[in-house]
Structure formats: structure tokens, C-alpha cells
Design goal:
Layout: H1 4-20, E1 24-29, E2 33-38, E3 46-49, H2 57-69, E4 73-76, E5 78-79, E6 87-88, H3 106-111, E7 113-114, H4 117-126, E8 129-134, E9 143-154, E10 172-185, E11 189-194, E12 201-206, H5 216-227
Parallel strand pairs: 3-4, 5-8
Antiparallel strand pairs: 1-2, 2-3, 6-7, 7-10, 8-9, 9-10, 11-12
Helix pairs in contact: 2-4
Length: 231
């Protein structure tokens, strides 16, 4: 389970990325979401939500519907913890009996994920190109990723005509398995692009607003440290 401090770190990282663009003002932030508005415009607010922090998957849909009624955009960013999202197929022993993946190499199968319900809900509104916040770990750095979930084609040609499942075993695209492909990192700052449909927004890369390249607070702290012992 993701700790409260880890959730707050995720929303803070998203806040920092948006603020670095110089385009937005943060209206509110908690451990589940961030509410922002675009600077210098009387524009509809945008709420960044981390869907797998909202509890049951249906809560995400309810959040979108509520925001839509209020003419507020929703921007989903999934938390990539490999437990509630982005779960590797090979971490589930049942894949070993899945002969329908015969056309894929062991390397491709190793990369596949088994979709969780919340990911399917997000895909209903935004398609196969999802945004994930990746927390820092021993192997991975903290970042926001754009990941395209390629379809996985199931091949049931191994099922004999005399098998009881023959009439139901049609080659098809899996509804549960996807082959992820990293499309890019949202850096050095973030901005929104709107899709209008269902009042959904996406995060995209932005440049850092020039004044934020000079961290005033950091400079003041460094100056204090250098001069505090001086007479």
C-alpha cells in the first residue's frame, strides 16, 4: 500500500512541474489531486487526479462526471507502483499457462502488463496513451512518463478442432494484456493539452519559465549560510 507521505510526494512533484512552466497557479493540493488554473485567464479549472488513490475504480468515473458538470477539466495521472497499476504479467503465475501468447518473444512477454480495472477506466476516456507518475526507487528515478499501451493479439491456433473450447477460441485482441512502450518523459516542466471530450486534459512537456531557473529561496539560503559567521 502506498503511504500517505508517498502520495503527497507524487502530488507535490506534479505541482512543481506545473509551476515550473510559469503558466498556472495552484489553487489546492492534497494527497489525491491538484487543482490549478491558468494564469492571466478566466479559464475553467483543471484537476489533476491520481486515479488509483481514489479507492474503488468507480470513484474515478464519478469524479470525472462531477467535474464535467462543473465545467472543470480532469487530468488523470496514474501512480506507477506495479501493484495497483502497471503490474507485470510475469508477476502473475497464471500467464505460464497462456499458450495464446506464442507469437511473442520471452522478452516481449516479460515487458507485458496485466491491466487493472482503474487503467481500463482511464483508457475509456483517454485512449491507450496513458500518463504515469514514477516514484523514485533504487533503480528508477522520479519522473512523469507518457506510456503507450500497445495491443496484444491472442492466438488460439493451438486449440484442436475436437477440443471443447474450439468454438469459443477466436483469435482476438486481449482486453487484459498490453505491451507498454515509453513515448517520452514530461520534462523539464509540464503543461496541459485539452481533448475537450468529457472535459479530459493531458499533461505534456513544457519549457521552464525563465525566472524559475534562478531559485531565489535557494540563493537566499546559500547567502545566509555563507554570511552567518561573519562580523
Amino acid at each position: 500500500m502506498v503511504k500517505r507521505t508517498e502520495k503527497e510526494r507524487a502530488t507535490q512533484y506534479i505541482c512543481d512541474s506545473l509551476e515550473d512552466s510559469g503558466l498556472y497557479t495552484i489553487m489546492n493540493k492534497d494527497h489525491e489531486s491538484v487543482l490549478v488554473k491558468r494564469d492571466n485567464e478566466n479559464e475553467t479549472n483543471i484537476e489533476v487526479v491520481i486515479p488509483n488513490f481514489l479507492g474503488a475504480a468507480r470513484n474515478y468515473t464519478q469524479r470525472i462526471n462531477r467535474n464535467s458538470r462543473e465545467q472543470k477539466f480532469t487530468c488523470p495521472v496514474l501512480y506507477k507502483d506495479r501493484k495497483t497499476t502497471f503490474v507485470r504479467l510475469v508477476d502473475n503465475n497464471s500467464w505460464r499457462t497462456e499458450e495464446s501468447l506464442k507469437k511473442y518473444s520471452s522478452n516481449e512477454i516479460n515487458r507485458m502488463i496485466g491491466l487493472r480495472k482503474i487503467e481500463k477506466y482511464v483508457m475509456e476516456h483517454i485512449g491507450n496513451n496513458l500518463t504515469y507518475y514514477q516514484p523514485e526507487s533504487d533503480r528508477l528515478s522520479e519522473k512523469i512518463l507518457e506510456i503507450y499501451l500497445n495491443p496484444v493479439n491472442l492466438d488460439y491456433s493451438h486449440i484442436d478442432r475436437n477440443h471443447r473450447s474450439f468454438n469459443f477460441a477466436n483469435n482476438r485482441v486481449s482486453t487484459d494484456y498490453k505491451l507498454p512502450q515509453e513515448n517520452g518523459i514530461i520534462e523539464p516542466a509540464a503543461k496541459f493539452i485539452n481533448t475537450r471530450k468529457h472535459y479530459i486534459a493531458r499533461l505534456s512537456s513544457a519549457i521552464v519559465e525563465p525566472s524559475r531557473l534562478l531559485n531565489i529561496e535557494h540563493c537566499q539560503q546559500e547567502l545566509f549560510e555563507r554570511t552567518k559567521d561573519c562580523f
